[in-house]
Amino acid sequence: MNDTSSEPGHVNEVHVVGRLAVAPVSREMPSGDLLVSFRLVVARASRRKVAGVRTPSVDTLDCSVWRADVRRRLLSLRPGDVVEVHGALRRRFWRQGVMAMSRSEIEVSKLRRLTSAA
Q1: What pTM does this model have?
Q2: Separation between Cα atoms, residue 111 and residue 74, nearest integer Å
């Protein structure tokens, strides 16, 4: 996947394999567009030791899907399924009352299930 950036040499590509934490959530935006959000849990090597034993660590990553074909595929998945996602890191901004809020998430352009939940 190539991100078409206006800056030469800049790349924003994300490739992650992880476990679907909970069922995806679909919602309609004020614009009428549909957005499906989900969370991936990704194991990582831990540097932390407890009693001389390395403890497992995970990263929990928020993901969003705008593309209809990927949304349909995602909505057929179940928590615990292991999936591979490709996309780009995005930072979204919005207002909540008088506060400005933001969050970073993976905007998914490709998704495929690798294994089903038991």
Answers
A1: 0.80
A2: 7
